[in-house]
Amino acid sequence: MALDKIGIAKRIAQELQNNTYVNLGIGIPTLVANYVPKGISVEFQSENGILGMGPFPYENEEDADLINAGKQTITALDGAVYFDSATSFAMIRGQHVQLTVLGAMEVSENGDIANWKIPGKMVKGMGGAMDLVASAENIIVAMMHTNKKGESKILTQCSLPLTGVGCVKKVVTNLAVLEVLPQGGFKLLERAPGVSVEEIQAATEASLLVDGIIPEMSLVD
Questions:
Q1: What backbone phi and psi angles, to 5 degrees, belong to 67?
Q2: Domains annotated on the chain, with CATH
Q3: CA-CA distance, 11 to 113, in Å (whole number)?
Q4: Active-site choice (15, 47, 59, 205)
């Protein structure tokens, strides 16, 4: 059974390392803050100017003035700090964010990412992803494996305008966990519960290395 967005976020939360700074992009990545594993302490940074972002608030406990970069209401942990966008991007460009989790429309087998523009459709701007992909030590992408037509979004080469080149380290989709190999191509690390290796191969346009028995993801609440 393929994962939903929450399942993807839960699996990515397992990648969090203690005492690190993490930026969560718009979309599925914002859900990761709800599933931080016990014993792990991370500082979530939002590019609109907060360090110490917490999970989403419960219903009727929202503060309309406290939002993330995607304009969703959030919570702030004890000790959280607020700052302007210039300071926020100085933090990002200064490589003080160890992990960035981004959504994407396409990822290529070279680790390229396209996540900001579909030709012919109006966009407000490229946003901060350009800085994030150029500066983060580790970039994990959260995305659906295929589009609404059933076509692969894990590609040999991206067809949409690129956000970054050769920057993605790992991709977590509703079907699988994939690692971008240094020489190009993806290595299948894990599969979603109930999803076969053959289903993943059929949904993947890019080169895919399958080595040995591929375990199912372990999703801990």
A1: -135, 165
A2: 5-209 (3.40.1080.10)
A3: 20
A4: 47
DSSP state of 67: B
> Token match 């990761």: residue?
32
One DSSP character per residue, 40-98 reads --EEEEETTTEEEE--PPPTT---TT-B-TTS-B--EEEEEEE--HHHHHHHHHTT---
Instruction: Quickly tell me which residue has 């994939």 as its tokens.
Output: 178
Tokens (6 digits) for 104: 């994407």
* Each residue's pLDDT tens digit, 118-169: 766 766 666 788 899 999 889 999 999 999 999 999 999 999 999 999 999 9
Residues 1-53: pLDDT tens digits? Answer: 789 999 999 999 999 999 999 999 988 999 999 999 999 999 999 999 999 99
Task: Please give the C-alpha separations between residue 170 and each of 90, 107, 113, 122, 137, in angstroms, as whole numbers.
Answer: 25, 10, 11, 29, 12
CB atoms within 10 A of CB 153: 23
Q: What is the pLDDT of residue 24?
A: 94
For residue 47, indicate whether it is catalytic. Answer: yes
Give the rounded distance of the alpha carbon of 21 from its chain centre.
Answer: 14
- C-beta separation of 65 from 71 below 8 A: no
From CA 41, how far away is CA 21, in angstroms rounded?
Answer: 9
Q: Which helix (H) or strand (E) holds 176?
A: strand 176-180
